[in-house]
């Protein structure tokens, strides 16, 4: 399974050998990272970070793209936890943070923040991918680490910036896609289909330009959850005899019975997005960007249990293989739900691009949950399928606003001074209501409420100075003022009605990057930065039930403070590049969910962990025309060592690895283009096993809620029938690997698409 790692290492070794024989010449000037975009509102110009870039042309040639998450599939150290096509709970992992740390990365689309910084989890706080039309992507840039002062402390892990395409003339595109996944695990052995249609049109008319896009997705998911029961120690004749359960073990190695599957989602999604620009002068552009996302998600369950008459069984006192099990109504009914969502993201910007002594960017963005209702039955199945009592969890009114005013002053040819003002406000409003009939009734009595706000103001400055033609120094700093207020937690049962304390804090985050180009094509870089990531609303106001007691364990969480460093060496030549990076991250007061004592019980909740560390080495390489003309090879491999150095709240975690992070991971992509019309790609991805728990007590990885190793191969073929029409065929998970990253992930999926471009 380590094939992609060895192959990547072999590729890197070959590139090193080629670089050694390249004509380096004499010492040359330092080359800056320049990102071309409609405007610089994404703050990527002169970014001192290590940057990975994927263009639309590369995506068309190499990746089976159905959703925007697919654009990042082979980017170094990025894993999107996309459980199925169209998944709305897909957080970004980074070099040093796993799928449960969504607030340690920032996702922008044309400068609009679509990271849901209302939380730090892989559910409600996942980025809003549905607002991005994959056919409108022009490029994606991924910045590693918090080394730019332009970004908040949430950039501890990475910044991902999507730039959409703006036309220079009349253009139109249309695409039809179909996918079929063959899935087999326990009692499920069937195919799950997905269909997609997308279209866009754009034009430029003198000072005006526009692009309008539409995307429709109809997706069926494999099981996302399983209903399980721990095997009792004693035999029994009590309970209704049933058959059909599957014997397995949970992630701690305890014997379990798998009773059935849940979370079989059918999602129908529609996305309308666009961008309009107006050149007020030849050097000043105003823009309006928007995205509207609609999601109708209906989930069902599949019970493997059958009574003597062959009828499915969902709850009650059951006898399985001579042992008694009490299966609660919620075991299966929680996997049945209807989710109805409408989300709107908008952005207004004004940008100057004179290229002279001074330029600026002003951008105001907003995101609103216009509607978010998840209705779930509380009545035992099968009765709950047709109605009965239930609950309605809402996010209506949850929103955020951001403002950025940035300037770039160039006092000399060798110096650029950047500075800015940032403001943001996040509002969480999350009530849950009782329903007399979960299928049709209006919301009834309030059951629970979590509510609160956070606000941040920041000033930042960054000086990029070419000290000599070979040495470039970037110094910067960011000062932030943060406040949390109006925290409220309500529960009907167990009873709770708490007004949480207002909090305020402030912090300074210095940054420094030194780049040296000793010879033509070589860049050596040393980076050091501090980042402060303040708690999100849902981290502060988490409500935990322990028996008859409901409480908020710590509404006074401290911000986590990261010290990040990186040493990198990069060699570029005419047909390829090679980069080796050593990186280290040390966090104080890390905000991680872990076990702790609450009201006399041991439960999991977000706590400050005193000290954590993550140290690794990353090798990234690419080469064109390998052995034969038209064959491209690219890949990366990372080794990561992590540890918890101090944890006053949970001694068993000290010395253990950080959860959800593999020790080894990598990818290899080979693309052959024998003609201008044909591209053939074979790719592979690998990660070794991870731990789900902070004390690494989950010894069995390839089971529901475990984090198993995986080696997955993909294939993609694109053929251009003519200048306007292209057909594609691909297979994701070509080797049909069955693996689990808490949830079971998709197995072999065949995709076809037809795309027209004018």
Descriptive notes:
A hairpin with a 1-residue loop joins strand 38 (740-741) and strand 39 (743-744). With 758 residues, the chain is mainly beta. The protein has four helices and 40 strands. Helices cover 4% and strands 57% of the residues.
CATH topology: Maltoporin, Chain A
Radius of gyration, in angstroms, nearest whole number:
26 Å
Largest sheet, if any? 26 strands, antiparallel
Question: CATH class, anyone?
Answer: Mainly Beta
3D shape: globular
Discrete helix count: 4
How is this structure best summarized?
By secondary structure, the chain is mainly beta.
Could you list some keywords that capture this structure?
Maltoporin, Chain A, 26-stranded antiparallel beta sheet, 5-stranded mixed beta sheet, 4 helices
Topology:
Layout: H1 3-20, E1 50-55, H2 56-62, E2 79-80, E3 92-93, E4 105-109, E5 112-113, E6 137-144, E7 158-164, E8 171-185, E9 188-205, E10 208-220, E11 225-230, E12 240-241, E13 246-249, E14 255-281, E15 284-303, E16 316-320, E17 323-327, H3 329-333, E18 337-352, E19 358-377, E20 390-394, E21 399-412, E22 415-435, E23 446-468, E24 471-491, E25 496-499, E26 503-516, E27 522-533, H4 537-540, E28 544-546, E29 549-551, E30 560-573, E31 576-598, E32 601-623, E33 631-646, E34 664-672, E35 678-687, E36 710-720, E37 725-732, E38 740-741, E39 743-744, E40 749-757
Parallel strand pairs: 4-7, 12-16
Antiparallel strand pairs: 1-6, 2-3, 4-5, 6-7, 8-9, 8-40, 9-10, 10-14, 11-14, 13-14, 14-15, 15-18, 16-17, 18-19, 19-20, 19-21, 20-22, 21-22, 22-23, 23-24, 24-25, 24-26, 26-27, 27-30, 28-29, 30-31, 31-32, 32-33, 33-34, 34-35, 35-36, 36-37, 37-40, 38-39
